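Regression test case RT-17, inverse folding.

Input:
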């Protein structure tokens, strides 16, 4: 039987050099915690943060049964090679790799994980122009399971302006989802509203990500996590409806029909069936 993937609605970046942020992360309900060694860690604390993560995986960490991934520095940075050598075999759920410009670069990460005996996944953060020029090749690297639309750094690298209406990076957002769907990968959008503490603005931001087709959202601000989880958790009535669609379509197939019409007039084909299956699968993961 194929193993069900764990639910990954919300991803929280953990500022590993900040004790207060580590505690906040330990207390929040994010599905996945991203243990950061890159942007949030000042240069003079890089080695200390790296040693801390190694110690967490060796002697125990404060994050309970949460899924943990590690974000090293890029291999072209002064700290990247040492980061990868230290964390590749730690037993994290995956490596959350920033700024991959080419498939060859991602393959180096994959090779290091294999040499270390890791069973982890590889998540690619699309944040440079070359990430998108080479996106198809990135998707084909073994172990890559997830694409992240890392729009903060991407906007900086493009010279674009981030807006709450999202129009400046809709193209790259759609590309992320398109290629993720084409290659059977997961997709993450990043939450970067102009006012982090405005609940209505944050909720609208998350809903835009969901409408674009993203599977999940990431944030560095722990109070966003409940809103993300709520947005990506199907309501009970939707789950019940999806189960009815799945059962009805499978009964139709058994009767050698490729579609059927429900009592409410809804036409159900393979398209609606697959959508319903995804809802049921997520609901089952969350129970």
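Golden output:
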């Amino acid at each position: 039987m194929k193993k069900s993937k764990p639910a990954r609605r919300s991803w929280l970046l953990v500022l590993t050099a900040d004790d207060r942020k580590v505690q906040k992360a330990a207390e929040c309900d994010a599905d996945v915690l991203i243990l950061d060694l890159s942007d949030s860690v000042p240069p003079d604390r890089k080695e200390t943060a790296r040693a801390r993560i190694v110690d967490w995986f060796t002697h125990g960490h404060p994050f309970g049964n949460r899924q943990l991934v590690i974000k090293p520095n890029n291999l072209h940075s002064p700290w990247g090679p040492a980061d990868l050598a230290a964390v590749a075999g730690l037993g994290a759920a995956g490596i959350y790799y920033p700024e991959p410009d080419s498939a060859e670069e991602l393959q180096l990460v994959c090779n290091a994980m294999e040499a270390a005996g890791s069973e982890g996944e590889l998540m690619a953060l699309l944040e440079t122009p070359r990430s998108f020029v080479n996106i198809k090749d990135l998707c084909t690297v073994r172990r890559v399971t997830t694409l992240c639309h890392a729009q903060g750094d991407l906007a900086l690298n493009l010279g674009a302006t981030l807006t709450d209406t999202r129009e400046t990076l809709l193209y790259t957002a759609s590309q992320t989802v398109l290629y993720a769907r084409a290659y059977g990968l997961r997709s993450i959008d990043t939450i970067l509203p102009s006012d982090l503490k405005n609940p209505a603005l944050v909720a609208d931001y998350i809903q835009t990500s969901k409408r674009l087709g993203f599977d999940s959202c990431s944030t560095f601000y722990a109070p966003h996590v409940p809103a993300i989880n709520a947005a990506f958790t199907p309501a009970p009535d939707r789950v019940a409806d999806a189960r009815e669609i799945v059962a009805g379509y499978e009964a139709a197939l058994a009767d050698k029909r490729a579609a059927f019409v429900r009592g409410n007039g809804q036409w159900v084909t393979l398209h609606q069936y697959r959508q319903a299956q995804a809802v049921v699968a997520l609901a089952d993961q969350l129970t």
